[in-house]
Amino acid sequence: MPTIRDVAEKAGVHPSTVSRVFSGKPSISQTTRQRVLAAADELGFQPNAIARSLSIQRTNTIAIAVSHAYQGYFEDVFFPQVMQGLLEITYKYGFRVLVAGSSGHADEITQLLDIVGSRQADGIVVLSNRFDVDLISALQNQNAPFVLLGKPDPSHAGCAWVDSDDAKYTEQVINYLLGMGHRRIAYVGGDPDVLVTKERLRGYSAALQNAGIQPLPEWVDYGFFVEDGGRQAVRRMSRLGELAPTAYYAANDLMAIGVMKALQEQGLRIPADVSVVGTNDSLLAVHAHPPLTSLFVPYSVMAARATSILIQSILAGHMPNQQVTIPCNLVIRASAGPPPVLS
Amino acid sequence: MPTIRDVAEKAGVHPSTVSRVFSGKPSISQTTRQRVLAAADELGFQPNAIARSLSIQRTNTIAIAVSHAYQGYFEDVFFPQVMQGLLEITYKYGFRVLVAGSSGHADEITQLLDIVGSRQADGIVVLSNRFDVDLISALQNQNAPFVLLGKPDPSHAGCAWVDSDDAKYTEQVINYLLGMGHRRIAYVGGDPDVLVTKERLRGYSAALQNAGIQPLPEWVDYGFFVEDGGRQAVRRMSRLGELAPTAYYAANDLMAIGVMKALQEQGLRIPADVSVVGTNDSLLAVHAHPPLTSLFVPYSVMAARATSILIQSILAGHMPNQQVTIPCNLVIRASAGPPPVLS
DNA sequence: CTTGACAATGCAACCGGTTGCAATTATACT
DNA sequence: AGTATAATTGCAACCGGTTGCATTGTCAAG
Question: pTM for the whole thing?
């Protein structure tokens, strides 16, 4: 592997001149440039990125941490779409993405701190949706540029984040169902410990409240983002008899599918008897029976935006500090309609 | 950011001693170790991974390149499952994954060569399924450790790869359909330029040949891995009338769904009138109507295996040279059955 | 013909760890 | 006690680019 000094010798110049040629510095004469390039070419020289990083104190890399142990993560749309957004923008800026595996939530934090602490990346996008206060504080202490995908705890409102206003758009979904005449509406959230679950619940409650409806506690359930969670929720709510919901909102499409299947197994027709709305607008929603009305959350766009903010701050040499809220979009298909008239 | 020398000064030892403590070298006395650790702790010292990489000539990182422009890539199961396998193994060895975006196939090669040439990663897993001879040669010239996910051109049979024996298991699927009595079987491949498409066609042809059946050329079509591709295939084959297939094998679940929908729109029942088998055993297959029989391809396992081979070679200091074939598994659901008796 | 101004290049220190070898110290054995 | 041997630690060069500053070269104006 030839180094900059080999090239310098061959071209009869000083190593620093070769460096200047390869980092596109001005004030190199055309003839010298040519000579250096020729020598480099002949030797098959390619600058060593690690040495460069050490010297300029920048890696042109941003990092994320991913729990590789959690299977569902790789079946859902969140991770791949986030990757797409990340790659699109990093590519544009000539950056790359360093991905660290992690064995769980706590370890994700360890990994991120390790990466920024050892300067393996210039900044990070934090995907976790439970933003422990200590992670944020630690990142701030490290003086490491970061952008959260999701909103932080109010006590860290000042840090940079990109979020999807889950409360607002969940409220909108509920309003859509209310507008069609539903009065008994169920909320099937994911993991109750996760921020987005709480946000959606907030939107759900607000919509019902605005409509003057006092929701039964039984209308709220958690399905942990898996199909069976949706089925279980239906099973429990069906026991309410007259008070069972006429519409279900589920926080991802997989749970919504579970809801639909459970309802259909009870002989109920969708949307004639019961309406169902999912979240994420995945292929599952497109191909469900009936096709599932679903709240599209543009994870890819969010990730792209977060990455832009991050890289621009890195290049400008300051900490990211923007806060962005990205709109969602209800994709209407055939799984939701007016409630049965005789209900 | 404190350096090893700051710690050394504080602990009253030589920098090399601090280095030895932090890289777990033996022959450091307990008392010195303690003193160094205390000083490091007090200063908040964390070793600089870049400097270390430069010195030891290893990054503990492996790389992949991904075409971020191709949307379908992020909707299918291949990429996320591969990432899962990669992360699982890299994590185990304390490695990380560097992901480079790329604007297309040719650029993927550029990115990979750039990464290994600039020594940003110790090795790469090549995901592309069209293994241009020049990429492989270039990687070999660079002396860069790499493992292919998929089989290379026969002229490079010697390089390391992990593949899923697509021909054999496609043959098995066709045999399954033959065994139920089908005689007119369609093959709906993906992109005809891609290696896996040709391999599956090989298996398809072999199975029919073995059964003494000469397939019509019209029974072979390409759907480019999208739903509409499946629909189009059905549309074209339906024109064959009496000679239309009674069973379809599609090279991914999305095309299989397209096939099913197109058939159902023609009033045909699945599997009573026509059978359909998909590939990948995705959630789409699980939730299709009827549930789709699908050939599971363990991408995650393949990626894990490839990563193991790669990292072990890196650690051992030689080039990877293993070739591994991983079995697939036909997951039987409800979309395939015997053909109609009066056919 | 001299001097000034600027462009091009060289010099050397620096980025922050690592490691072979030498020097020092501690332990063991006669 | 005296020396052989092993365990610790220090020294200094090295990994491969980068960059502020000094030096040399060039051309134009005075």
Answer: 0.94
